[in-house]
Amino acid sequence: MRSLRSRKGWTLKEMSEKSGIPVSTLSKVEHDRLTLSYDKLYQLGQKLGMRMSELFAEESEEDKTASAITARRSLGDLQHAVRIETPNYDYYYLCAELRRKRMIPVIAKVRAKTAKQFGDLSHHSGEEFTYVIKGSVVINTEFYDPVVLTEGQSIYFDSSMGHAYLTTEGCEEATVLTVMSSADEEQMQTLLTQHANV
Q: I need a surface site. Which of 29, 113, 146, 198 has the fewest CB within 10 A?
């Protein structure tokens, strides 16, 4: 948050006025005493006219040039992931500092137990691969019967098809690794925006 403000050349007060978030809240975030909820991050992005992925990434020399990126890399772990909490999932976006990614790797903790609890099926561009790390999940999709996946099993599907991840009966929480891929460079923004409606 501080680096974003610094890039824009704003004071805390100016950022507060532009975002609608109180100065005290922004100060706590900058000093790691508070984490903004998804709704607040979404509000911040909307008010500042920025994509969510831009809020998570430092501006680099790569971003200032139009040259092709040929040697990017990023190391990731849960401690440094961008965490988004929703009623159905906790998402941990890995390697979030890389911009213009074609693949979005996410560790998700799945808690939703019923289709009614989940709500509307998710849709987004591209393809999706999911591998069950812990527990078991039911994958509901728009055009297929539900399928149960247990630890060590995986699924690959077109993510423009409606889909939902639910825990199976007796499983309180499941952990999955999901990789979403698309030619759309704004995919991360699309996914994060979608979380606001979960």
A: 146
